[in-house]
Amino acid sequence: MAAPQTVMSLRDATATLGARAVLRGIDLTVDSGEVVALLGANGSGKSTAIRTVIGQVPLTGGELELFGTPFARFRDWRRVGYVPQRSTAAAGVPATVREVVSSGRLSHARLRPLGRADRAAVTRALELVGMADRARDSVNALSGGQHQRVLIARALAGAPDLLIMDEPLAGMDLASQDVLAEALREQVARGTSVLLVLHELGPFAPLIDRAVLLREGLVERVGNPEALHDIACHPHDTHDAEGRAGIGAGLSMSELNPGTRR
Amino acid sequence: MIELLDYPFMQRALLAALLVGVAAPAVGIYLVQRRQAIMGDGIGHVALTGVALGFLLNTSPVWTAVLVASLGAVAMELIRWYGKARGDLALAMLFYGGMAGGVLIINLSPNGSNASLTTYLFGSVTTVSDSDVVAIVCLSAFVLAASLGLRRQLFAVCQDEEFARVTGLPVRLLNLLLALTAAVTVTVAMRVVGLLLVSALMVIPVAAAQQATRGFAGTLGLSVLFGVAVTLSGTGASFYADVPPGASIVVLAIALFGAVTALAAPLARRRARRDRELRSGEVLPDGEAAPGTQPDASRGQAARESGAAAPASEAAADAAHAGDAESGTARGRASVAGRYKGGGAHGDRGFRA
């Protein structure tokens, strides 16, 4: 098979928030069909790394490519789905679940009205996250986990090739987490690549191809999720934590050992 | 009621009132959604400078007001982008500057005085001229085309600006368009309700509508309906009672808000109860590990009511009925469970359990 295409790549990326250097030279790639998790303590730069990828935090150095296109020239935003780290999908005026999810379809419709295909995609996204029966309800009436499911459906409505999620499991009960893991599994089976920030791997663990551990704005380790999860979240409980997993950059396996993946 | 249509000045006034009643809430809803309900007020203050400038230059105050208000709205938008922590102070200064500039310029102009500003501050819909009507129709057409034609896009931007940027929408352009639309709306509405009360017409119908709605489209439709109702009845009332139309429109709008809130509160309570029960049903989709018998029992009852009765469940359902009737929520529970059952097979499963 042909070598997998690189969907997203960050090279030696640096970024600052205010005067603080939050990213201090990160290499990170996501291959086509790959699920990559960013782990790390609070303040390690996980969310900033994600926000540089979607262009919401400007890079102060390094390179960013999306689907092989340098970021400055990238316009094909319909290929990217984004789930922000938020506790609510609500704003100052009531909106139904379906209305919020429909706005995810604007990556295709742009300034046109939504057509039949758009409406079908919205319905499918609602079904994927198990919220189809709440489509006509106000998002104000939802629980925290349901808000998060709505935000994920909004990203899925655009049928993205790369799904970027910032702590999608935050504030979710276990039942919702399972629903989400199932939705994600289905999405990955269709060939979607995923880059997500996680605090706890939870039910996502079996889905994750590669976990990247950030620490103080640098990639500390890359490895299989089980080994890294212990180091990331319980550094003092892990015997020989430093000796485990040895790669020092967030590059995909295919780049490090061409021909070993897939 | 028909006699007031005999007067041409009232025909013009009612047409202006109708257009403003539609346009103001249609734009205001986005400001409310973005939690910037106060922005209309700021634009109103800035527009005053434009009105005074019209007197000074001896041209139509409506068009100079459109120009200055648009500049002010764009400035506010730029402050929102670039001014971070102290943006509120910069906005406040824009408010005061607009007001002071208006008073200053009007006193410099040969044929103007503070008194000439009063009709713009508090509105004077009955003095709308033919040329005013032309301006109001053109500007309203622009406002409605933008705010209704691009409602999904503006909704997305005001709901979650960051997400809208990642979908590739031209967010800055849409924000500027919204600022311009708001500025135009303010100047259109100033003849009807006055610059000091303009924001009321952009905000109160929306606030009233959202007491009774769940969705954005519903809120938009209902707020436009409310807007038209209060502008037309307020203008009509001012004809008979000889009170300023701007003030009567705003007082009517607040009264409408109070009435809708009073009527919607019981509705909202019932809806909240239903949602709560729906959620408690979701936690126990299999009817297993139920802490009490009520959720199961209510499903049984719903199944019976929806015609899917099974003899074995009769006793349980009856027991449930008695239990629920005691707590006074039998009907609510039944409808929840019925709806739930309609959504999937869960109802049946609970029913068997």
UniProtKB/TrEMBL annotation, chain A:
Transmembrane segments: none annotated. Gene3D superfamilies: P-loop containing nucleotide triphosphate hydrolases. Belongs to the ABC transporter superfamily. Pfam families: ABC_tran. Keywords: ATP-binding, Nucleotide-binding, Transport. This is ABC transporter. Residues 8-241 form the ABC transporter domain.
TrEMBL record, chain B:
The keyword Ribosomal protein does not apply. Keywords: Membrane, Transmembrane, Transmembrane helix, Transport. The chain crosses the membrane at residues 12-31, 89-108, 133-151, 163-182, 188-208, 220-241, 247-268. CDD domains: TM_ABC_iron-siderophores_like. It is a multi-pass membrane protein. It is found in: Cell membrane; Membrane. Residues 274-353 are annotated as: Disordered. Residues 297-328 have a biased composition (Low complexity). PANTHER family: ABC-TRANSPORTER METAL-BINDING PROTEIN (PTHR30477), METAL TRANSPORT SYSTEM MEMBRANE PROTEIN TM_0125-RELATED (PTHR30477:SF0). Belongs to the ABC-3 integral membrane protein family. This is ABC transporter.
